[in-house]
């Protein structure tokens, strides 16, 4: 290890036996603190001073982290280890969690840190606080995964899963489930690699059979753990996707559909847009009936009305023969364009312009009135200002023209518009008139032709 690693690890080692000497440790001596802090240590009761100094030290560490001062934070952390000498066991437990979280963050970012240092720190922390052994082991494995050390991470998870100390608490049982789930995810990763290798290389019958059996063994290991974790209410996107991919590969379409349906519709699970997206894409791939696709996307529309799949949803609704679906198709487009991130989505504007024209021909003006009534006070400024007309014409003339058509219908005068029905002020300064002024002034004048 380098000097930085040795210095930090020395602080951990010094506190390795700290619980055996609780209450007999010396006063915290922090020469690097301000005179105010030194005065706090030298006056009053020890218990109060101890709590105050450790609290101030913790604040300094957090401030250094916020400023990305990793070396300064590591120096403060070495002194904060003395918080493990607190008389209160609950406060010692909190201090231990703080040391792990802050220390791992420092080691993750410190320019002189390396995997060896992080591993040594993690192993020490596991041994100091057995109650946090499982949680630290899981986070340690995730760090190793981030570094691309898959085998080391898998080994770490295996060790954690087999670890036992006294009676298992409810919280520890949950962490064990997580550890098993991540081990299942790594089994899936190995399965996926072997599947790719099997498809790339030409093998004889015996070699192919052996490789297939090896791959299937990883599927069995992964599926057991992944199946267990996705039964617990929560957000399990990568676990669900991996499990479904394996089920599809082995032809269990019914099983895959059931997993996705439960994940999307189980009321015990938190609201999750991705759950409905996964189910929609699966059903679309299966060429499910359009009514079924619409029912899935209806829920996604309620959760994330600006999602890019909403334009697909609009087309499904538009093709439907049900009037309620066709009406919802207009509201879907309005809702997409309500969001600032979609204001220049040219596809959405094209769909809206075309659909408004269709609705006018079919004489469903009440649909537009209903959708426009809640937007008439803010859409003109949000979408149809002079600034936007100028900007759109300069950057994307097709977008400008689509918006001009829509603006002309919603705000303008004439037989093609319902501006007089919308309650919007009748003003010549609409987006369309702005655009006309801009476009006229932007057309270059041709030089006069010479006469022969």
TrEMBL record:
| PANTHER family linked to this entry | TATA BOX-BINDING PROTEIN ASSOCIATED FACTOR RNA POLYMERASE I SUBUNIT A, TATA BOX-BINDING PROTEIN-ASSOCIATED FACTOR RNA POLYMERASE I SUBUNIT A
**Where is the chain membrane-spanning?**
none
Q: What is this protein called?
A: TATA-box binding protein associated factor, RNA polymerase I subunit A
**Organism superkingdom:** Eukaryota
InterPro entries, sorted? SL1/TIF-IB_Component (IPR052669), TAF1A (IPR039495)
Q: What's the encoding gene here?
A: LOC114050248
Q: What is the lineage of its organism?
A: Eukaryota, Metazoa, Chordata, Craniata, Vertebrata
GO BP terms: transcription by RNA polymerase I
Q: What organism is listed for this UniProt entry?
A: Vombatus ursinus
Q: What Gene Ontology cellular-component terms does the record carry?
A: RNA polymerase I transcription regulator complex
């Amino acid at each position: 290890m380098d000097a930085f690693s040795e210095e930090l690890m020395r602080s951990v080692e010094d506190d390795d036996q700290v619980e055996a000497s609780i209450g007999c440790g010396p006063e915290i001596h922090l020469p690097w603190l301000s005179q105010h802090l030194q005065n706090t240590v030298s006056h009053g009761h020890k218990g109060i001073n101890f709590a105050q100094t450790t609290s101030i030290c913790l604040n300094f560490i957090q401030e250094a982290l916020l400023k990305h001062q990793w070396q300064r934070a590591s120096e403060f952390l070495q002194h904060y280890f003395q918080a493990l000498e607190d008389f209160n066991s609950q406060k010692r437990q909190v201090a231990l969690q703080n040391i792990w979280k802050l220390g791992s963050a420092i080691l993750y970012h410190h320019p002189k840190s390396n995997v060896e240092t992080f591993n040594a720190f993690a192993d020490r922390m596991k041994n100091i606080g057995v109650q946090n052994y499982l949680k630290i082991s899981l986070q340690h494995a995730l760090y190793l995964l981030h570094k691309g050390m898959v085998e080391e991470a898998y080994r770490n998870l295996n060790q954690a899963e087999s670890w036992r100390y006294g009676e298992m608490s409810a919280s520890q049982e949950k962490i064990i489930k997580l550890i098993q789930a991540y081990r299942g995810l790594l089994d899936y990763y190995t399965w996926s690699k072997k599947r790719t290798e099997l498809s790339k290389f030409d093998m004889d019958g015996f070699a192919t059979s052996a490789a297939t059996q090896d791959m299937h063994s990883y599927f069995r290991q992964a599926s057991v753990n992944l199946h267990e974790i996705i039964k617990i209410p929560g957000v399990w996107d990568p676990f669900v996707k991996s499990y479904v991919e394996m089920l599809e590969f082995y032809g269990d379409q019914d099983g895959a559909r059931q997993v996705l349906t439960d994940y999307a519709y189980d009321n015990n699970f938190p609201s999750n847009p991705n759950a409905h997206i996964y189910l929609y894409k699966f059903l679309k791939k299966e060429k499910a009936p359009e009514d079924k696709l619409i029912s899935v996307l209806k829920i996604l529309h309620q959760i994330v009305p600006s999602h890019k799949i909403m334009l697909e949803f609009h087309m499904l609704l538009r093709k439907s023969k049900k009037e309620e679906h066709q009406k919802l198709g207009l509201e879907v487009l309005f809702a997409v364009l309500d969001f600032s991130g979609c204001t220049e989505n040219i596809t959405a504007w094209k769909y809206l312009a075309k659909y408004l024209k269709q609705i006018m021909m079919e004489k469903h003006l009440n649909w537009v009135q209903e959708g426009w009534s809640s937007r008439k006070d803010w859409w003109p400024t949000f979408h149809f200002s002079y600034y936007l007309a100028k900007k759109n014409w300069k950057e994307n003339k097709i977008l400008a023209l689509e918006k001009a058509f829509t603006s002309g219908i919603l705000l303008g005068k004439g037989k093609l518009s319902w501006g007089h029905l919308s309650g919007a002020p009748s003003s010549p300064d609409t987006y369309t008139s702005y655009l006309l002024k801009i476009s006229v002034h932007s057309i270059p004048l041709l030089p006069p032709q010479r006469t022969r």
